[in-house]
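Async update (no meeting this week)

Hi team, since we skipped the sync, here's where things stand on the single-chain job. The sequence we agreed to prioritize is pasted below, unchanged from the tracker. I ran it this morning and attached the output directly underneath so nobody has to dig for it. Comments welcome in thread, and please keep replies under the output.
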Amino acid sequence: MRNSFLCFIGIFMLFDDILSRIKNSTDLNTLTAVADFVGSTQAHLSRKKKKNEFSAEWAFKISQHYNLSTDWIMTGKQNDMSIEHSIVKDIDVWLSDLTVAKNEPWRLLAFESDFKELFPRFKQWKEKKSEQPESDKDGLSKVV
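Output:
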């Protein structure tokens, strides 16, 4: 029923495609490894595979641990978050090139200072985060 609805709205999920994306992007190379990771059994996943049903809960758990998009795992399509992740990765590589390859470690401090000035909300978030007890620093707090 659920897959029928998803097909109706234009999202067709194939268990094999989902499993393939997971295998290619993680160290979960077998159905048994995926089952163990999501807290299930290989037999249960095999039954779900025959029904072509892959739980969004499983996809979410995998996405959180492996820093993947749940949407991408389920559909193979990137959402808007992929743009943000791409930008973050580009900045990380660029800073690495500047600080390591060109042996200019001071550029990292200059970048952080400039970034805080350009984005005051980031500066506020960072200050609040540094004031939090260590147990609250899960990255889920929001500064509005």
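Quick observations from my side:
Residues 81-136 form one domain.
Residues 1-11 have pLDDT under 50 and may be disordered.
Reply here if anything looks off.
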